Amino acid sequence: MNVKLLFGLLFLVSLTTFAQDKKWSVEANYGVIPNDGFGGDDNILDFGLKYRFADFNFIQLGFGVNGGFSKDDIRSINGEGRTTESFYIQPRIFTEFIIPGIEKLRPSIGLGYSIVNDDVEGRLDNENIMWNVTNGGFNLNLGLSYDITKSIFVQAQYDFIKVNYRDELIFQGATVKPDFNEKLNNIRLGVGLRF
Question: What would the 3-class secondary structure string for the chain be?
Fold first, then answer.
């Protein structure tokens, strides 16, 4: 086990040391969520992977995917309430800008689609509730990263997500067919590694 871990770390170090053209990056983010973000009050753990497939000196184009988890627990005095665990995945196309003179600071913009799976469990109107729904919608991502070294960076991201709720669920013995849109806003802070 230790030998595999050592070889894995050696492989990552070799990628970051010897790679001339750093096209890949991995990131870990922590959600600082306003009231209308994924899952409500509890924060998101988020991980991402990006690949830059085109470099035009000042502009890099790429494809990325982020995935994450949040948990929201709402309880009333009488014990009713719900726990929602939200899992999401966000594939997107992005553009990263390299500004001459301040190359360490990189603004970015991305467009994609968010797929959100909500697993809800709780008690409402003296009845146990439990359902699992998957919905999705348009995602706009704005980001700003700062290079600490040639490989390590810190970043802040804002996501605007318009989720279309259409997945059916069973509530009090009846099939409920929602048909509405919800606008979500998420802010994430994180660190990353380019290789």
Answer: CHHHHHHHHHHHHHHHHHCCCCCEEEEEEEEECCCCCCCCCCCCEEEEEEEEEEECCCEEEEEEEEEEEEEEEEECCCCCEEEEEEEEEEEEEEEEECCCCCCCEEEEEEEEEEEEEEEEEEEECCEEEEEEEEEEEEEEEEEEEEECCCCEEEEEEEEEEEEEECCCEEECCEEECCCEEEEEEEEEEEEEEEC
Q: Is the whole model's pTM more than 0.85, yes or no?
A: no
Phi/psi of residue 15, nearest 5 degrees? -65, -45
Do residues 195 and 151 make contact, with C-beta atoms less than 8 angstroms apart?
A: yes
- Rg, Å, the chain Cα set: 20
Q: How far is CA 67 from the centre of its chain?
A: 5
What's the pLDDT tens digit per position in 156-175? 999 999 999 888 877 777 88
The two structure tokens encoding residue 165: 């709720």
Q: Residue 34 half-sphere exposure, CB side, CA atoms within 13 Å?
A: 9
